[in-house]
Amino acid sequence: MPRSGPRPRTAPQVPTGFKVQRDLPLGRHPLLAAFPGLDKLETATRHEPDAKKRDALHHETLVEIVPEDMWMYVAPETVPSDARGRWKPVLADGHDCIVIGESHLRESPELILFLDIFHELCHIRQRHDGRELWDRRYNYAQRPTEVEAYKFVVEEARRFGVADPVLREYLKVEWIDKAEFRQLLDAVGVPPA
Do residues 37 and 20 lie in contact, with contact meaning Cβ atoms separated by under 8 Å? Predict the structure, then answer.
């Protein structure tokens, strides 16, 4: 789901080799054009241990940069029922595509982009496995696909020393209330403040 609003101002270091091509024009591009070398990171290997699947994931996934003030989401195949009238998502159009808000790509700290892109790549893998990304039987903080994706990026961030206060700030999303935020923190193993 897209994020909007203020972006975290944290700036801890990201893994060596993580790069962002911040000046790509609006439109669709290969994933590795936006994040060159992402496929060579240790995180990529942990994310998808199978080399053949990893290669396909990184070389077949696209990103679409849009002018809206938002963060990232995986483009759905069809418009989710609860999006009608309040949000017009970019559709996948037969391709795995991660939609990125232009200001997010150009201005957000590298750490936030690192966490977001791997979070969304988790969703691409989940969709490949036949899982429902927009399962409305769960609230956002309890949705198994969201919890799994957040757990992965939290574990990766901890590998390179990101502190819990930074992770709490990252996990604050404006479409969940305080109770759901606490649920999300508990689900991914980040202690509350």
Answer: no
Which structure tokens are listed for 125? 């893998």
Tell me the pairing of strands 62-66 and 97-101.
parallel
**Domain range holding 76?**
27-132
Q: How many residues does the chain have?
A: 193
Sort strands 72-74 and 97-101 into parallel, antiparallel or unpaired.
Answer: antiparallel
Amino acid at position 88, single letter? K
Q: Is residue 157 part of a domain?
A: no
Check whether 9 has a pLDDT greater than 60.
no
State the CATH number of the domain containing residue 100. 3.30.2010
Q: What's the number of domains the chain is made of? A: 1
pLDDT tens-digit readout, 104-155: 999 999 999 999 999 999 999 999 999 988 888 988 888 999 999 999 999 9
Q: Is residue 85 part of a domain?
A: yes
